[in-house]
TrEMBL record:
<feature type="domain" description="ABC transporter">
    <location>
        <begin position="28"/>
        <end position="259"/>
    </location>
</feature>
<keyword id="KW-0813">Transport</keyword>
<dbReference type="Pfam" id="PF00005">
    <property type="entry name" value="ABC_tran"/>
</dbReference>
<dbReference type="InterPro" id="IPR027417">
    <property type="entry name" value="P-loop_NTPase"/>
</dbReference>
<dbReference type="InterPro" id="IPR003593">
    <property type="entry name" value="AAA+_ATPase"/>
</dbReference>
<dbReference type="GO" id="GO:0005524">
    <property type="term" value="F:ATP binding"/>
</dbReference>
<dbReference type="InterPro" id="IPR017871">
    <property type="entry name" value="ABC_transporter-like_CS"/>
</dbReference>
<dbReference type="InterPro" id="IPR003439">
    <property type="entry name" value="ABC_transporter-like_ATP-bd"/>
</dbReference>
<keyword id="KW-0547">Nucleotide-binding</keyword>
<keyword id="KW-0067">ATP-binding</keyword>
<protein>
    <submittedName>
        <fullName>ABC transporter ATP-binding protein</fullName>
    </submittedName>
</protein>
<dbReference type="InterPro" id="IPR050166">
    <property type="entry name" value="ABC_transporter_ATP-bind"/>
</dbReference>
Length: 273
């Protein structure tokens, strides 16, 4: 079964917190954040004194060169790394560790290989003790939406890399977190599979209005996906820019002068152009 196209979904109409008529705490608020680790006798600070707010419902791409702290920052948002200084809040609450309000999709395959597709998708709510009657319909719908209806009893080893990534996406949405944290989830995939999964992700985001923080080193991927691009480089935020081009976005971006201007600016900041 083919993955449903995001083109059928009004991506511009994705829910936003500000549309509800009341002010909500941002999905994340970082104040003077410092992250560090040791390399032998040296202390390395990939993030040093960062301030950042991510509104609820926003699709934020965290862009940057390899080794400049973007994945480290994402893991801190997930509660997997404790700050060396400063504060991290999620929806107004101090982040002190992982929580069900934040779901993570890793670059490498992280789905349990001993569970069939439908059991993988249901794994999160089942482990949280949610009664099956409360999650079964959501799990079934997500398996259909990611195009795996005919593979629901398959083992992960019987799936392609793109199919396993679809399972991971369905699983994190099935657990119904407020925020999705995604660490270069499509980087190992070929162009066509990556494009299909980008469309799938945008479709699910438009339907649910969840906050997404998506790490990538690919400028074109960020331009296709993001409401906003935050460039992390040399320990700080080198650029923070909204992306207001109409959705859905595809090849037409290449013909849009404003998109190409932004692409060149990002290349210059990243030191790749």
């Amino acid at each position: 079964m083919a993955v449903k196209s995001a083109g059928a979904v009004d991506l511009a109409a994705a829910p936003r917190a500000e549309a509800t008529g009341h002010t909500a705490a941002p999905a994340f608020r970082l104040r003077d954040l410092v992250l560090e680790y040791r390399e032998g006798t040296q202390v390395v600070r990939p993030i040093d004194g960062v301030d950042l707010e991510v509104p609820q419902g926003e699709f934020t791409c965290i862009l940057g060169p390899s080794g400049h702290g973007k994945s480290t920052l994402l893991r801190c948002l997930a509660g997997l790394i404790a700050p060396a200084g400063g504060t991290v809040e999620a929806a107004g609450e101090q982040v002190s560790g992982p929580g069900a309000d934040r779901g993570m999709v890793f670059q490498q395959d992280a789905i349990p290989m001993w569970l069939r597709v439908e059991d993988n998708v249901a794994f999160g709510p089942r482990m949280r003790g949610v009664p099956p009657r409360e999650y079964r319909e959501r799990v079934d719908r997500l398996i259909t939406e990611v195009g795996l209806d005919d593979r629901r009893r398959a083992w992960p080893r019987q799936l392609s890399g793109g199919m396993r990534k679809r399972v991971a996406i369905a699983a994190v949405f099935a657990n119904d977190p407020d925020v999705l944290l995604m660490d270069e989830p499509f980087s190992a995939l070929d162009f066509f599979t990556r494009s299909r999964l980008q469309n799938l992700l945008l479709q699910l985001w438009a339907e649910t209005g969840k906050t997404i923080c998506f790490v990538t080193h690919d400028i074109d991927e960020a331009l296709v996906l993001a409401d906003r691009i935050v460039v992390v480089k040399d320990g700080g935020i080198a650029m923070d820019v909204p992306v207001a081009f109409p959705r859905p976005r595809g090849e037409e971006l290449r013909a849009l002068p404003e998109a190409q201007d932004l692409r060149r600016e990002l290349l210059d900041i990243l030191g790749e152009g």
